[in-house]
Write a structure and sequence with these properties.
Uridine Diphospho-n-acetylenolpyruvylglucosamine Reductase, domain 2; Oxid_FAD_bind_N; 3 domains; 14 helices; flavoprotein; Uridine Diphospho-n-acetylenolpyruvylglucosamine Reductase, domain 3; oxidoreductase
Length: about 450
Amino acid sequence: MANISLVPAVPADSLRESISGRVLVPGDPGWAETTCGFNLAVTQRPDIVVEATCTDDVAQAVRFASDEGLRVGVQATGHGAAVAFDGGLLINTAAMTALQVDPDGRTARVAAGVRWQPAIDAAAPYGLAPLNGSSVTVGVVGYTLGGGLGPMARTFGFAADHVRRLQLVTADGVVHEVTAESEPELFWGLRGGKCQLGIVTELDFELMPVSHYFGGGLFFDAEHASAVLHAWSEWVTDLPDEANSSIALLRLPDLPEVPEPLRGRLTVHVRYLYVGAAEPGQRVLAPLRAAAPALIDTVAVTPYSAIASVHCDPADPLPVWDTSCLLTEFPTDAVDALLAVAGPGNEVPLIVTEVRRLGGAVATARTTANAVGGRDAAFSVYCVGALPPPLADITPAAGRAVVGALQPWSTGGTQINFHGSDASRPVKAWSDDARARLDALHDHHDPSQLFRFAQPYARER
């Protein structure tokens, strides 16, 4: 770490004079809300918080932190927090919710605090849709900077592939308008690099001409886990690019808000989205529907505004631990290996163990235009488990067991948005050449390592 010290007493009053949003120190009303993220297992303990309302607030806060010798972190929704931010100045961008849609240009512009559901709702009246994540409560900017692998990725690629412009505040407090023409190297690195180059305060991106999809979920009882997983692994081999799917072993809690057939038991959830008409979508899905009797079948023609119903990700904060890996293939032996550690008969605290089919536009769209890594993988695997204190060791062990069991088919890498909480694993989200370019950008734009973000990857110095 560079010579950035933690300062015990921060002159907050001087900062308040230049910030339109709130400036908070420990004990102030609102402190808990502005420092709390989505993952309750990660506790933020900054010295001071700036609740930014505009780009100028962010720039002023960065300049203040640099002058005072404070590290800088940023948080909008807190979904990406993998390590705690201790000391320094935390910029919370959740109040930056400006959002515009240009239906003629099929683009949207969002400020740093916008979440996906408002962006989806703003685009829907025009028959357009963004390349959002499976969870619509995730922030647009952080998700996109990490690549953005969503429910339509096989059809259209990563969200980062469709970014037009970024507004960036660098470590010197300077505001940059970053496009392919104005700053091509920054434009390359910010889209998929998830790197510590600065704070993105605005994002312009393309919208897709999608108003409805044919999709939803198929839920199966645990007794059919082997049959369904094997059928799915064979079925996804030749999926058309219009079809997107993942499969998950679910262990949902025994709570009233969980549908009764899924409550407190192991089930298998096939997620499916077909971009196109219902009839060809039905034909593609037919082999999976025939694999076993479904407990629940929600697949239907659905307005895109209801996209959250495909994955059914949790909307409320939880203490969790997560990990992931990328696979070159998911053959019969890999299915058996996964079932051996996370299938029926295993008492593991993993809420979700997901395998997602990649390929399609994920592999082919604009492959040299940005820093997105992991395009060569055929599948991604993601595990997330609850992490209350009694499970502090058990949940990580279960997740690592899944990754270990699938090691024979692993690419050796991850995607940065899914790298997870496992600090024992090195970040291998980019090729060596891409990582070298990102490091060079970091050296140039933040030589003192002012920024300390939720998923730090930079070299230790």
